[in-house]
Amino acid sequence: MTDYKISAKDVQVYYGDNHAIKDVNVDIEDKTVTAFIGPSGCGKSTFLRCLNRMNDTIDICRVEGDILLDGEDIYDPSVDPVQLRAKVGMVFQKPNPFPKSIYDNVAYGPKIHGLARNKIELDEIVEKSLRKAALWTEAKDRLHAPGTGLSGGQQQRLCIARAIATAPEVLLMDEPCSALDPIATAQVEELIDELRQSFSVVIVTHSMQQAARVSQKTAFFHLGNLVEFDETDKIFTNPEDPRTESYISGRIG
Amino acid sequence: MTDYKISAKDVQVYYGDNHAIKDVNVDIEDKTVTAFIGPSGCGKSTFLRCLNRMNDTIDICRVEGDILLDGEDIYDPSVDPVQLRAKVGMVFQKPNPFPKSIYDNVAYGPKIHGLARNKIELDEIVEKSLRKAALWTEAKDRLHAPGTGLSGGQQQRLCIARAIATAPEVLLMDEPCSALDPIATAQVEELIDELRQSFSVVIVTHSMQQAARVSQKTAFFHLGNLVEFDETDKIFTNPEDPRTESYISGRIG
Amino acid sequence: MTDTPKFTSMKVQDPRTKKRNAAEKRFRAYGIAAIAIGGLFLAALTFTILKSGLPAFTQYVMKLEVTLSQEQFDDAESQLLKTAVYRDIFIDNFSDQLEANGIDVNYDADALERLLGKVGGDIRAHYRENLSDIGQPTVFQLQLSSRVEGYFRGRVTRDTLVDSRFLEKTDLDIVDVLRDAGLMTGRFNWAFLTGTDSGVDNPGGAGIGASVIGSFFMMLVVLFLSLPIGVAASIYLEEFAPKNRFTDLVEVNISNLAAVPSIVFGILGLSVFIQFMHLPQSAPLVGGLVLTLMTLPTIIISTRASLKSVPPSIRDAALGIGASKMQSVFHHVLPLSMPGILTGTIIGLAQALGETAPLLLIGMVGFVAREYPDGVVSGFMDPNSAMPAQIYTWAARADVGFYEKAWGGIIVLLVFLLLMNAIAIFLRKKFERRW
Amino acid sequence: RENVQIAGSSTVLPYASIVAEAFGDNTDFPTPVVESGGSSAGLKRFCEGVGENTIDIANSSRPIRDSDIELCLENGVTDIIEVRIGYDGIVFASQIDGPAFTAFEPADIFNALGATVLVDGDVVANPHTQWSDFNADLPAADIVAFIPGTKHGTREVFEDKVLLAGCEETGAMEAMIAGGMSEDDAEDACIEVRGNGITVDIDGDYTETLARIDANPNGIGIFGLAFYENNTDVLKVATMGGVEPTTETIAAGDYPVSRPLFFFIKQAHIGVIPGVKEFAQFFIADEIAGPDGPLAQYGLVSDPELAATQATVEAEETLDVN
Amino acid sequence: MLTIGLVLALCAIGYMMGTRRALSSASGDQRLLHSLKGYYGQNVALSILVPSATLLVVWLIAQPLLINQSVASLFSDQDLAEGASSSLIIQDMRRVANGLDVVVDQGLVSDDAIASLDAESTNVRELLADVGVAVGSDVTQQTLDGAKRYRSLSKTGNFWRGIAVLALALAGFVFAMQRTDKNFRARNVVERGVLILLFGAATVAVLTTVGIVLSLIFNTINFFDAFPAADFFFGTRWEPSFSGRGGASDLGFLPLIWGTMYISIISLIVAVPLGLFSAIYLSEYASDRVRAVAKPMLEILAGIPTIVYGLFALLTVGPLLVSAFGNGGFFGVNWMSGGTAAITAGSVMGIMLIPFVSSLSDDIINAVPQAMRDGSYGLGATQSETIRQVILPAALPGIVGAILLAASRAIGETMIVVLGAGAAASLSLNPFEAMTTVTAKIVSQLTGDGEFNSPETMVAFALGMTLFIITLCLNVFALYIVRKYREQYD
Ligand SMILES: Nc1ncnc2c1ncn2[C@@H]1O[C@H](COP(=O)(O)OP(=O)(O)OP(=O)(O)O)[C@@H](O)[C@H]1O
Ligand SMILES: Nc1ncnc2c1ncn2[C@@H]1O[C@H](COP(=O)(O)OP(=O)(O)OP(=O)(O)O)[C@@H](O)[C@H]1O
Ligand SMILES: [Mg+2]
Ligand SMILES: [Mg+2]
Ligand SMILES: O=P([O-])([O-])[O-]
């Protein structure tokens, strides 16, 4: 039993022959925000998806190594991935609202987990989640319009709202602000900060600034390797690995 | 006949009852990069989709007003939207590769437009496009693997490659770098700069920095209105409208 | 961090999860059960079919060496019912045969007649084709009557047999002797696969071959008309049709056609193709046309459903790089909806292959498939039956021998169906993907 | 067109198929095509006109009616040769191991199956549940009968020659008329059957009746004689009025329930479609349709007046249609 | 035949030359062309084919009509007085004319000799009989003249037809070639052509409907002339008798439509859950291998001839049900007296319909993008929750289509009903009682022994027509419902 919320040991991921994640060891603390950064295609999403076994749904994907959540191996056959995913929520890189109304999109999680005793509580949860995801003002008049009719950024926020509505212990967010304007981004970052009070958050981002702003720990991935994992401050000010250094210093975007 | 590549006059767009674009007038010059900025859901994508009549595919969407391309009204019944779209290419906000191989994704446009005389030329076009979109190194060994098996950022670059392979005169890019790391972003920005030498590019972005870096003109949308449209420098240094001012000054992300 | 108050092990399921997982298991079990029920019925049906139909694939014959003289031949040829004369000649010859084999058994000519099937036609055909065999000893393998075959198969026993002009109990003694002497044996019934229909008093001579050909030509027509027309119509309706009254009309029309009883298509075929267009009766071409009209709705409905399920982003992607609507449909949407189209085709063709009622009105049911077509054109135009029609006809005949044939025909039909589907299923497998 | 085309009655079809096969085997003409589809559909197509794309011969299990002839005339089919090929015996049979249904009178059938019967001098809704209820000689078994559906010509024969006869025999008819019914109404009442699972209409063919008898030991079914004779190992037949149904008793007119079978030739096609007349002659030749021919062998009751029919065909004597 | 061959050859040449010409107008550079080079070729080919084929078809239809008219002018009204109709005479002439063609083809008589043929000296009927052409009666001089006229007219007609078609094809060729130029919008033109073809395919369905209505309507009207409509539509008894006895038939429609609906609903109650659960299992749970086997396996169910199902219902399922629900049966209830009942036919039909629901739904469920599933799993939903609440709603329009198809099939099915449900029409609520359907009665009335213009036979057409209208109304209703529902999402 470790002190970490999640710890990954010697994780390898293969897509068929493609070795996408090589020997990654990461410990994610509770009540912290951990950022994954790295060039596109380096395996951030892949690794993130390992943490709640979303990779199970990809036929050709094979995961090796141990990933412990609260000291329990999540790849243990006796672990129920459903319970795991209820604890470890996820916001995907491509916004994927259900072809249902906005309300139903958000209410879906609470409903299946039985988080609301009645319609009023459910309405409350939906409103709170939408508010936190900074979508309430835009959505409140069209709660029953289809979620797929939203703009790109709105869809992304809808997916965030949907994820936090189920109150997970760990929230995995794959580039949650990629389609958001600065103000919305700030609101989501605020949300992340708020979530950190009780849970842990893992966020994939391409914005170094964002990583610096919201995270306490940062992991830098490169070509499937975890190059460096340390305090965010350390990574951004005094990286150990030259690759990190050079990635950081191309400080653009 | 104006000097503008595209000029939009009094454009109104409705999604059913929702008035998404209100009275927008914009003139887009040839050989310039025009950036559309504005908060999420303000109508950037919607307006962009008007410029090559992609909105035709949404049943409930209604466009009013005139949009001229090289002085011709593109909504004129005699205009062939196909030819229009061949001239005015588009990269969508959500990457949407065809469920085909990477090669076929890129080669599709050149094939239907007859841009290559033979297989060798086609190969060349594919390679060149992938290179320009900064995907060649990652993709060259798996050209015949499915495009849907790429990472989010890779898919985005694939869509860029696909769009430029058809050599359009105007390229509309809806947040083309949202899922890209700084280095890839830089490469794409370089590409945009290169394209500008011969064509015009319209880009939607949430990154003010990016807008400032790549564009000569910037349009700021807010709640469906075009609030301000001017030289990029002017917008970022000395905006006229207080709304622009306040959006810019929330300079984050 | 065990101090988290919320900690619950994921290996220990909380009650709610337990309930949900139970629901999950149940749900899954329903699925398995549903398939199992389907499979069970299929197994039961297959078992019934095989059990009743396999006997059709064997036949029992009597070996007989005969020398037919020229006079006998001429005499027989001068009669009205020549085949009966040939048969009698053979029966007369039988005693020599027994002597040659050193067999001693009491029989009379009538008994032999009861044992043999309707063999006169075969014998006559043989000599007319091989005139040189006249005067030469020739060995024949003559089909036994359906009741004697039943005895060999155990369907008829001495206990159940009731003496009749078709077979008497004492006849079975002769059968036993001849069987022991090796003169009566069983063999694979090629004639069933290659033969044509026969009269109701000749179950042994009935074969399904000609009607297989009939079905084959019909299916060619159906496939080459209904698939392109169906897919084209679906594409028009789903992708191009303006949303107006006319489109609605067509849409409702198509669903409605699916509910039109198949016999009504027969009425339509009779009046349009035969009476108005003067196409020949009983022709596979007409059958194919009627079945095409009948399958169209199935193909259109399934094609439309699968066109609908292709996400709009794919269409957008193609349109966005300057593909025309037509190109986006033919290059992207259509290949992606191929599985559904093929499913519709499989089901539609399967239905068309097994349908009898419409054929009734255009003259393909009855005693039709007696001759093989002698070319491709005549394959389409000459009177022929089709497998289900043949099966239907056989099933109604009095002699139990035909009942076996009917089930045997069903086996052939199902094999035909499987072969036909195999290609479509293979193609469908290739087109299936998830994105 | 090379081959003779025939359509019509499914009752005649078996015989026609035997003859067609033999015709093909014994002559140089191609084998005729014999479609089924019912007498009325066959006659309809027969009367559609003259020419290649109409049929040459229609089989029918009933005589041609005025309305048929009218249609024929309308379409220019003026010369029709009627050929009676023999009789179809109609028999009552039951499971061979079932109760001893061996002898019936029309009255028994009427008492068992009629909707209203005469009980103690009153016309009442049929109260009988077992055969022994009204005739102690019959087995004490539940009444279940599988009778041809109303589409079958056989049903008409059954109604006329059995139910109606039984109705008169039992005196029910008289009682009904006495009760104030017109003769027509009484006839209609006589032939009405009980339904309700006691009489079951069979719209399919005799194989279906057989299957039902197979499944129900108490069931009695109505079959064609030929069908019964081909299935004597599973069926036993009942006498009617004390006469056993055989080809001989029916030919002699002793067994009461039978009906004639016909085919009709389009005279206009004789000499133009190869083999039409030859086929007709072959069909009714003594070797084929005679008492020792394959048709009788199979179960057709051969026509005692076959010679007259042969002469009709020979002379191409057409029906007097006007 | 020759004309068609020539036109097709011209098409092939046109395709190649069109392509070639387009390329050369762009001096060999494909990129300067407006459309892909293949489109230019296709344009030429279509320009040749479409007009000439249209002309050919029109001509083929019009020529006989015109010739008939011209031939009809040959005989005067007094010829008609003999009681023959003019159409019959013309038919006869045509047959003789065709016969003469055959005679000439076989070389029995030379073409010239035909002209001098006269009815007195030659027995034309025998002549024609020799070549196997049927003529109703002896050929009169008048008929022969008509036939000769007919022949010469159609000969000239055919000759000019060939010329005209070829000329039009050539004209199309020249026209299209002239238009072929690098700026010519070949793709648009070709696509419009294809669109018209697609539209044409869609109208086949409408034409079929028109055909069905036309082939039913006259006899339906005749039926209603002979039988009161009110008794048909509102009659509660279906008891046809033989018209020979004087029309005491009850031909009430209600018990039949009741049976149809009842049995269809039973079959859907069986088929929809079984099919849907199969589809769900196949697309969501089953491994590839299981799916590859199970799906085609279920599809066999749709291909087994319905007569087999009928026998299966009669011999296996019926007795089984009786032993469960019948007198002294397993459940000790006495609900079922005979093996043939609505429930027997309905359940067996349900089995047959499983693949209609399962296979089609499976394809559609499979087409729901993976991202939808991911989204749901990511929230901690179980697979069944995902299916029920995300995937099925997304796939609903297609699934509804599949179910409608199955329902349609159930309404149209005959053999299973005839064998499984019995032939007795009854207005009963009890599923264990025998019932019958409209379809089964259409078949039995149409193939029966009655006179064909008696109400008992013609009722088949009225039944067909009424069923047609009822299902039409049901479909309109279904469309309305589906539309309404679909507007919420999508
Ligand atoms: N298909 C649609 N149906 C209905 N409403 C739509 C549709 N697409 C967009 N809208 C609405 O129109 C408005 C403008 O949307 P648009 O996609 O243009 O925003 P955007 O500026 O691109 O935002 P983002 O930066 O989030 O992508 C939004 O309120 C959105 O909800
Ligand atoms: N479903 C898949 N099948 C095959 N290969 C895949 C699949 N998903 C990802 N990959 C490959 O695995 C590698 C890592 O992908 P991943 O999606 O984890 O990258 P990423 O770091 O999230 O990149 P991005 O920032 O662009 O989203 C890439 O090379 C990608 O092409
Ligand atoms: Mg990623
Ligand atoms: Mg947008
Ligand atoms: O087919 P039938 O007309 O003889 O019943």
TrEMBL record, chains A, B:
Keywords: ATP-binding, Cell membrane, Hydrolase, Membrane, Nucleotide-binding, Phosphate transport, Translocase, Transport. Residues 6-248 form the ABC transporter domain. It is an enzyme of class 3 (hydrolase). SMART domains: AAA. GO terms for molecular function: ATP binding; ATP hydrolysis activity; phosphate transmembrane transporter activity. It is a peripheral membrane protein. Its EC number is 3.6.3.27. The keyword Amino-acid biosynthesis does not apply. It comes from the Bacteria. It is found in: Cell inner membrane. GO terms for biological process: phosphate ion transmembrane transport. GO terms for cellular component: plasma membrane. Pfam families: ABC_tran. CDD domains: ABC_PstB_phosphate_transporter. InterPro entries: AAA+_ATPase, ABC_transporter-like_ATP-bd, ABC_transporter-like_CS, P-loop_NTPase, PstB-like. PROSITE patterns: ABC_TRANSPORTER_1, ABC_TRANSPORTER_2. Its main location: membrane. Part of the ABC transporter complex PstSACB involved in phosphate import. Responsible for energy coupling to the transport system. This is Phosphate import ATP-binding protein PstB. It comes from Octadecabacter ascidiaceicola. The gene is pstB.
From TrEMBL, chain C:
Its main location: membrane. The keyword NAD does not apply. Residues 212-424 form the ABC transmembrane type-1 domain. This is Phosphate transport system permease protein PstA. It is found in: Cell inner membrane; Cell membrane. The gene is pstA. Belongs to the binding-protein-dependent transport system permease family. CysTW subfamily. Pfam families: BPD_transp_1 (PF00528), DUF3333 (PF11812). CDD domains: TM_PBP2 (cd06261). Residues 1-20 are annotated as: Disordered. Keywords: Cell membrane, Membrane, Transmembrane, Transmembrane helix, Transport. GO terms for biological process: phosphate ion transmembrane transport. SUPFAM superfamilies: MetI-like. It is a multi-pass membrane protein. One of its GO terms (cellular component) is plasma membrane.
TrEMBL record, chain E:
The keyword Transmembrane applies. One of its GO terms (biological process) is phosphate ion transport. It is found in: Cell inner membrane; Cell membrane. It comes from the Bacteria. The keyword Phosphoprotein does not apply. It holds the Pfam family DUF3708. Residues 257-478 form the ABC transmembrane type-1 domain. The chain crosses the membrane at residues 40-62, 158-176, 196-218, 253-280, 300-322, 334-357, 390-407, 458-482. Its main location: membrane. InterPro entries: MetI-like, MetI-like_sf, Phosphate_PstC, PstC_N. It is a multi-pass membrane protein. One of its GO terms (cellular component) is plasma membrane. Keywords: Cell inner membrane, Cell membrane, Membrane, Phosphate transport, Transmembrane, Transmembrane helix, Transport. One of its GO terms (molecular function) is phosphate transmembrane transporter activity. Part of the binding-protein-dependent transport system for phosphate; probably responsible for the translocation of the substrate across the membrane. Belongs to the binding-protein-dependent transport system permease family. CysTW subfamily. This is Phosphate transport system permease protein. It comes from Octadecabacter ascidiaceicola. The lineage of its organism: Bacteria, Pseudomonadati, Pseudomonadota, Alphaproteobacteria, Rhodobacterales.
